[in-house]
Specification:
This protein is α+β, with helices and mostly antiparallel strands. This is CR-type domain-containing protein.
């Protein structure tokens, strides 16, 4: 069953009565008897109360006329979906300048390019302004003429009779595509005013961009129609993995593996960083899973490249699965010494 619309947006005097009449008009659609009366006798039959709940003296008019008077024309809603006239505006406005669409392109960076930024040249497929017709779409030497079907309005109007009244539907003129003019198309662009071309763009990638970052290049999207402003180009960033380094925002992570002897005695280990190889001091007695901090060796902050994150080094201690006879003898001697002194690196 078709329910009347519920519009609780106006508290002005008389609003309740107006919406009541709209609801009664909608009842025609849901009541077979009223629809039959309307089809047979028109509005006069309903005015006489023959439909029942409409009541004597209730005049059913185009409900969108009520909306029109109550809400001030409903602006660009086209008289509730294009019915009822008005609100559509002159379709010839399509002949005015129109901005170009935004473009999108994918760009994959090396790990260090994303960390420190870089300059790249990228080729972009885009619609550029036609130089022959200067984006008008009209063949040079010819002049547009008024569309004979819409008489220059860019619109065509069709009428439709329904139980709620006679509605007018306004749509773009199919002959001139709403421009109000017909013309001989430019040979190069076919009347579009734009041609598809490949343009090479110089792109500066800032330091600190991360996977999923999106760069905006103003004015490098598609050219506008009829001299309109060009759209923007959006560059979606992805980043290749590094064989040794991992990234978490501004923090770099990596692993270093040392022997159990070096973990006991301490050592110097060469660590790969974004700045290159760095010697890292491993203190004596380092336990497996220890994390050592290398301050300010991480990723620059996006927009503030002088601020940098840290590099976290995760220590992995390599325990041999087998020992030579001499190694076993030394470890056993160490164990015996530990049991006598009750002190040492393996005290628990």
């Amino acid at each position: 069953m078709c329910e009347p619309p519920i519009l609780d947006v106006n508290k002005e005097p008389g609003a309740e009565e107006v919406f009541k009449k709209i609801g009664e008009a909608y009842e025609v659609l849901s009541d077979d008897t009223k629809k039959t009366i309307y089809d047979k006798y028109g509005e006069a039959g309903l005015k006489g109360g023959m439909g029942g709940r409409g009541g004597p003296g209730v005049e059913f008019t185009n409900p969108f006329d009520l909306f029109e008077s109550f809400f001030g024309g409903m602006g660009g809603m086209g008289g509730m979906g294009g019915m009822g006239g008005g609100g559509f505006g002159r379709a010839s406005s399509r002949s005015r300048t129109q901005p170009g669409e935004d473009g999108r392109v994918e760009l994959q960076l090396d790990f260090l390019e994303a960390v420190f930024g870089c300059s790249r040249e990228i080729d972009v497929d885009r619609l550029n302004a036609c130089e022959v017709c200067e984006t008008s779409g009209v063949r040079p030497g010819t002049t547009p003429s008024t569309c004979p079907q819409c008489q220059g309005s860019g619109q065509v109007v069709s009428a439709m009779r329904t139980p709620l009244g006679t509605f007018q539907q306004v749509s773009y003129c199919p002959r001139c595509d709403g421009q109000g003019q017909t013309f001989t198309a430019c040979d190069k662009c076919g009347g579009e005013g734009r041609v598809e071309e490949v343009k090479r763009i110089s792109l500066k990638v800032p330091a600190g961009v991360d996977a999923g970052s999106r760069l905006r290049v103003r004015g490098e999207g598609n050219s506008g129609r009829r001299g309109g402003e060009a759209g923007d180009l959006y560059v979606n960033i992805s980043i290749k993995d590094h064989p040794e380094l991992r990234r978490d925002g501004m923090t770099i992570h990596s692993d270093v593996e040392i022997s159990y002897v070096d973990a006991i005695l301490g050592t110097q280990a060469k660590v790969t960083t974004v700045d290159g190889p760095v010697e890292l001091k491993i203190p004596p007695g380092t336990q497996p899973g220890t994390t050592l901090l290398m301050a300010r060796r991480g990723v620059p902050k996006l927009g503030s490249p002088t601020v940098r994150g840290d590099h976290m080094v995760h220590v992995r201690v390599r325990i041999p699965k087998s020992l030579s006879a001499e190694e076993r003898k030394l470890v056993e001697e160490l164990k015996e010494l530990q049991s006598k002194t009750k002190v040492g690196p393996f005290r628990f």
